[in-house]
Amino acid sequence: MSPLMLITCCAVVILGAALQRVAGMGMGLVAAPMLTLLLGPLVGVTMSNSVAVVAATLVMLATHQHVDWRRWLQMAPLLLIGTAAGTLAVDRISIAWLDVLVGLSVLLALFVSFLMARTATVRGGRPLAMGAGFAAGFMNTTSGVAAPALTAYGLAIKWEQRSFAATLQPTFLVANVASLVAKAGTGAVPLTSLPAWWATLILLAAVPVGVFIGRVLHSRTPVAVARGLGVAIALIGGVVAAVRGFIAI
What we know:
This protein is mostly helical. The protein has helices at residues 3-23, 27-39, 41-63, 69-92, 95-119, 126-143, 147-156, 161-186, 197-218, 223-248. α1 packs parallel to α3, α1 runs parallel beside α9 (197-218) and α4 (69-92) runs parallel beside α6. The chain has ten helices and no strands.
């Protein structure tokens, strides 16, 4: 990894971590598409999973008192099943098609979230929570993005923002740890393909920097603005990843 690429990756991670502290999400939406673009689909998603573990842990420590553990427990079991299904997909799909999957899954999830925000009248329930958990686990493993599926669920049941943002953190933590364990256990992502250990440590160290910046900005930035920025970056990254994959097929 060249110094310029490492600096760019660190900037992406810092931005994602800052948005996650401000809006409750952002690391996956920002890091997954951009790291996929910079490092390729397999390595990019895996590194996105890694930095997301650190970000979710730090933000959860700051917001744990607002976590809705009842809803979280409804989503968690299917989150793990979705992760297993996603791991099988990663192990069997070519890099070009995985690029397409990464891009289109982000675009589709964002589109569904957009529609749900305007048409959803669904009330909360275990089946809907389980479905959101499965979708989040599958997408997180294949594309590094769980937030859009969970956002659609939150919009559908009109989940209060503070509780929603806080509950996302243990969800992100479990989803990304499960993705990393599943990929390591199945050999879906060879260790030799990952960045050097020192580059990985630098990327992980960029997370608390971003969380600190997000903490400073938290009381000054409207949540809608921060979330909109993250979605815009994810949209651009998703389009680029999908186009690159189609070209390579």
